[in-house]
């Protein structure tokens, strides 16, 4: 596991024996093959912000869902989706616990729910970065639970017409490969998502470009307060749509993508250096001299 500044080295990783597979019957909370669940399992959703609330209609089709969040309208939100609003401790006691909380709140939430987790439970996080969150969960949660990292590569805006076919990254934690495989099968078979299996470090390296660079560009364009323009091109339209797609993302999400990913600074620096290079004067390429009189070019010779 890559160690990053501010990330503590876990003593448990040095002294604990290899993690055992979840003691749930058969293969754990997401049982069966091909993504099929044998019966309705219980799922606790911790975090009902923009993304957590967006997930509710998809989750409630397959699980008995309990949701916990400090938002004042939680009871109304839960009622509208046919799920239960419960305390954090009660929600954490479910078969599957989905943490839909910002990265900067993850450590506190993990520490709070750790005593309430059921042995054999499956804990899934969905932060936009992977190295740091999964390190935190391995250090904080008990050995008796499975941990899987996911990153839906979409949100309420890009998934407004449905999530089938959209990409989601799934990252296995050491000792939890079977749990990651079960999650991947469920996401692909039952939700129709396109699952990308990857490591936490490779995920963060790719996201430095895919999200770090695009969100940086989109935020910069939005900050320019551009005027309404009538004379536009299709390229300009693509640029505007990129800025609009991430325009509703929270500042918390942007900081996670642009600051907390350990690889984004390098990508951003490369972009700014390349931008400066494009403004530098370029030397004109010298013209190729004409063939001397009486001589044919090599191409002409070959044709002859």
CATH architecture of the largest domain: 3-Layer(aba) Sandwich
Strand content: 5-15%
Q: Could you name the CATH class of the largest domain? A: Alpha Beta
The number of E-state strands comes to 8
Shape: elongated
CATH topology of the largest domain: Rossmann fold
Q: Would you kindly provide a written description of the structure presented here, covering whatever features stand out?
A:
With 304 residues, this protein is an alpha/beta fold. The protein has two domains: 12-198, Rossmann fold; 203-275, no CATH class. It contains twelve helices and eight strands. The protein has an eight-stranded mixed beta sheet with strand order 3-2-1-4-5-6-7-8, with helices on both faces. Helix 5 (103-113) runs parallel beside helix 6 (131-140), helix 8 crosses helix 9 and helix 8 packs across helix 11. The longest helix has 24 residues, at 200-223. The termini are far apart. 33% of the residues are buried.
